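Weekly structure sync, notes
Attendees: PL (lead), two postdocs, one rotation student
Agenda item 3: pending single-chain targets
PL asked that the sequence for the first pending target be pasted directly into the notes so everyone works from the same version. It is reproduced below exactly as submitted, 266 residues in total.
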Amino acid sequence: MHITLIQTALHWEDPTANRAMLEEKIFSLPEPTDLIVLPEMFTTGFTMNARQLAEPMNLTTFRWLKQMAAQSQAVVTGSYIVQEQGRFYNRLIWMEPDGSFEVYDKRHLFRMAEEDRTYTAGTKRLVKAWRGWNICPLICYDLRFPVWSRNVPTGRASSRFSPYAYDLLLYVANWPAPRSTAWNALLQARAIENLAYVVGVNRVGEDGNGHRYAGDSSIIDPKGEILFRQNQTEAVFQTTLSLDELRAYRERFPADRDADEFQILT
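Predicted structure, written out during the meeting:
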């Protein structure tokens, strides 16, 4: 899997400027890629100003994602503010090159910023098959809740009954610098406990509320080893992840066979 992480500062509540900035970065990629990962709320920064900034589906940002995926021949994914049936969502779009797409609405809303009073929580996890990999994209605060991301097949209580649900766990984020220790520790924990690669893409810079972001976008292997981490500065990082190495490690260390059985009730 050829993967591209885009860690960037964001123009506060300015979708036009952010789309233009990200488009330039995508068009300037030095190598072809299978997957391009953008931060959470990549058109605005992490804002509760949903009424003024939300877009209906199939309008400007959705069409922009469709164009980026078609031109790069890669999946492009990240979240932005969507309005649907009178409700607002922090919605991740999984956009494929042929224009097919899926959505994931952020499950865990950050109450300390009153995100839970502004947006509607999602109820369903998304796992997508892409070029031989199964990939589960999640959003920011979801990282703190390991049950939601547990690597067990849908409809099964334990992975001992069938193959793993996913091979790669993604987190797109606007995770502030004062809580960087938690971000870094939890990314490693999610990789270790789920026997999967974990990728976290965070932003840098300062937002309109004065919150600072250190980035620390990372790639973690299933043993918890850090393959990439970038602190403070903007970065566009491309690398290749090995499914063969992942499968070999799972065979050598099948800890999932001893996992506790459970079901998520929504």
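Discussion points:
- The longest strand covers residues 75-84.
- The two ends are 32 Å apart (CA to CA).
Action: rotation student to compare against the earlier draft before next sync.
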